């Protein structure tokens, strides 16, 4: 859900990108991220020249290093037999930190837009994460699809909107991205290390389009929020209104509305554009990307419906810009020919599909 709030401290960070798999951790904000990926390759090995055992050990280590290198190369670039032109890559953002998270890249090898899809920016909005996990398997026909399904792993693990343990005012990950309208991403700073890591990744990706998947707690922005609570934007697409995107946004809403029968649960067009200091807005301002926020509602709706609404909306946009050329809303790719392993949200935050 998007609602405006912001703080004002700035913390530098040095995000790391790696193609090495690792598991997500679940608590605490540690110090600077260790960089351990290179250690295996930089450690000096001094054999005992007079010892056969030493030579044996050296040989074993060299063989292990070769094996390791081959494994990493295999993970870094996997090609599906049926679609030789599409290559797949995945890795970890901010590896070694408590907020490290996986990314997945499908590259068609053909000209086209680079699309960045983000899920799980707010930890109590798991349908965005789940939908992103599904969308990353979609068969692209042009451009490049980059997916970060669990942007805010700490908050997702806690099932909270905010990053646990962060100072008040800076816990909302999607209010920590650069607000400056400068033309160079290096001239602006995100706030806090988790945002810095994501921002560092986004600036490397240089997306043409960003789809940021969220959820609200009420169906329509016309609701009256409880005391002390900010208004929910409701089920909606938040985009920059104008002749260029209005027709597309209407089709996005129509696709989402096809999943609901109750008129009170219909989706809204919010033409004001993504919230300032959010990742989507920062990608618009700094990189000149187009970006939208897609919102479903977690109130009284099963996860299966909410993820379907996200997929239905993403399907319209990705077809419109040519990344896919078929209806992928219900695309299933459980055999995972792409080589991309399925990732599961933690059971306590992901109700079973009904
Ligand atoms: Zn949200």
CATH architecture of the largest domain: 3-Layer(aba) Sandwich
The largest sheet is: 10 strands, mixed
Bound molecules: zinc ion
CATH topology of the largest domain: Aminopeptidase
**Percent of residues in beta strands:** 5-15%
Q: Estimate the global geometry from the Cα principal axes.
A: globular
Over the alpha carbons, how many angstroms does the gyration radius reach? Answer: 21 Å
Task: Describe the structure using short key phrases.
354 residues; alpha/beta; Aminopeptidase; ten-stranded mixed β-sheet; 8 helices; 27% helix; 14% strand; globular; disordered C terminus; binds zinc ion
Structure summarized in a few sentences:
This protein has 354 residues and is of the alpha/beta class. It has 8 helices and 10 strands. α3 links the parallel β5 (114-119) and β6.
């Amino acid at each position: 859900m998007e609602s405006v709030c912001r703080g004002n401290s700035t913390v530098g960070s040095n995000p790391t990108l790696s193609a090495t798999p690792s598991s997500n951790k679940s608590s605490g904000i540690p110090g600077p991220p260790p960089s351990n990926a290179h250690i295996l390759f930089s450690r000096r090995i001094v054999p005992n020249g007079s010892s056969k055992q030493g030579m044996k050990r050296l040989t074993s280590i060299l063989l292990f290093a070769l094996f390791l290198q081959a494994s990493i190369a295999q993970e870094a670039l996997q090609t599906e037999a049926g679609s030789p032109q599409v290559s797949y890559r995945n890795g970890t953002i901010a590896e070694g930190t408590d907020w490290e998270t996986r990314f997945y890249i499908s590259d068609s090898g053909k000209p086209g837009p680079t699309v960045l899809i983000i899920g799980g920016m707010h930890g109590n909005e798991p349908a965005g994460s789940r939908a992103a996990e599904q969308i990353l398997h979609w068969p692209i026909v042009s451009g490049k699809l980059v997916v970060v399904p669990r942007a805010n792993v700490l908050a997702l693990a806690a099932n909270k909107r905010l990053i646990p343990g962060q100072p008040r005012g800076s816990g909302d990950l999607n209010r920590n991205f650069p607000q400056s309208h400068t033309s160079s991403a290096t001239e602006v700073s995100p706030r806090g290390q988790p945002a810095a890591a994501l921002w560092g990744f986004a600036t490397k990706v240089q997306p043409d389009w960003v789809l940021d998947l969220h959820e609200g707690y009420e169906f329509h922005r016309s609701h009256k929020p409880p005391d002390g609570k900010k208004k929910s934007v409701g089920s909606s697409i938040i985009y920059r209104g104008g002749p260029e995107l209005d027709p597309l946004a209407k089709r996005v809403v129509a696709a989402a509305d096809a999943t609901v029968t109750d008129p009170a649960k219909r989706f809204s067009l919010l033409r004001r554009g993504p919230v300032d200091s959010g990742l989507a807005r920062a990608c618009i301002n700094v990189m000149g990307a187009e970006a939208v926020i897609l919102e479903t509602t977690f109130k009284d709706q099963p996860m299966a419906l909410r993820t379907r609404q996200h997929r239905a909306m993403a399907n319209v946009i990705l077809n419109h810009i040519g990344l896919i050329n078929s209806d992928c809303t219900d695309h299933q790719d459980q055999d995972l020919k792409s080589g991309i392993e399925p990732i599961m949200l933690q059971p306590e935050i992901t109700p079973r599909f009904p």
